Amino acid sequence: MQPPKRSRTATRARLLEGALDVFAERGFAGASVEDICDRAGFTRGAFYSNFASKDELVLALFQATTDRLLEQIEALLPELASQPGTLLDAVLGLLDETAPDQRQWHLISTEFTLHALRNPEAARALNEQRAMFRASLTRLVAEISATSGVRFSVPPEQFVRLVIALHEGARSQSLLEPAEVPAGSLEHTFLPMVLDAVSRPSH
Amino acid sequence: MQPPKRSRTATRARLLEGALDVFAERGFAGASVEDICDRAGFTRGAFYSNFASKDELVLALFQATTDRLLEQIEALLPELASQPGTLLDAVLGLLDETAPDQRQWHLISTEFTLHALRNPEAARALNEQRAMFRASLTRLVAEISATSGVRFSVPPEQFVRLVIALHEGARSQSLLEPAEVPAGSLEHTFLPMVLDAVSRPSH
């Protein structure tokens, strides 16, 4: 007999996976809880015993994606502390690879952001989730800059906001024109310039 | 009696304005041609004698917005040629001001971009429109750098792509957290650093 906890985790995972597919096909607004249950092979009862709403499920997807990214960055920390110059390459590499299907993830995260711009409750929840992610990334940037003796001329959180903004804006261009803007190319070209500029001693 | 051309232009303008409101409220997918006609006070016949589809109307909105921006930048050219350092401030100022309702414009343009990611025909049309806009901006950047004797270490089009990516990504953060990320703040902080970095003589 499977312990109940494991079964519950497996149900959640299958619902999240099914939702990814359904959202990518029909969009956040166009996908119903029923569609997600059909895809995952569960009843609405199973859905609602795991998630209070479609919004809560999407936020769980955000959380899972950012948790995975942060874990991967933390695993690199010992190596980065001895080679601080490679931080940006490492982070950019992870951003490229974390979401195996960048298109799917871009569609879902952008659609939920638009939903949040029309729905204050969703905005609060999304902002909270994004703030936790930024705080974790900011802590890592601050740690690495301390270890490597580099002083930032801007608050590390501003730099993290820049990385996120550029990555999200560039991803849209890469998905629309994959041949002209290979994934990660704008980030790889321009972020090292900014890192270099903010790492100079303040004057 | 009004000449037919003027009346046609006025009908188009009213349809575009009505569509802006309806899209912002209901989203691109949720707004029907009928909703737009109701808002603008026209029949479906009037709509289809001006636009072949909802997609074509949105592309006309993109065109009108980018034309306005380019006109404003061109009007600044004589001044910029004598004070090249102010180029970025001028462009950033225009980006801040061009769409009087940044939220509305962000919702519509992002939604149409998502639609294009699921619809190859819409993607072709959107990419064509964006390519024309980038080409005009690139020509202006190249003119100004030639006049001011500055050499770019990256192709000017790459710099234009960066400005667009950062602006679109930053706008999302500003709309979600207006107090933490005032409109234009990430662009004003970081783009001058990049401009400085790419303007150095190549070595």
Automatic annotation (TrEMBL), chains A, B:
InterPro entries linked to this entry: BetI_C, Homeodomain-like_sf, HTH-type_TetR-like_transc_reg, HTH_TetR, Tet_transcr_reg_TetR-rel_C_sf
Gene3D superfamilies associated with the record: Tetracycline Repressor, domain 2
GO molecular function: DNA-binding transcription factor activity; transcription cis-regulatory region binding
Alphabetical UniProt keywords: DNA-binding, Repressor, Transcription, Transcription regulation
Signal peptide from the UniProt entry: none
Span of domain HTH tetR-type: 9-69
Ranges annotated as DNA-binding: 32-51
Domain of life of the organism encoding this protein: Bacteria
Name listed for the protein in its UniProt record: AcrR family transcriptional regulator
Lineage: Bacteria, Bacillati, Actinomycetota, Actinomycetes, Propionibacteriales
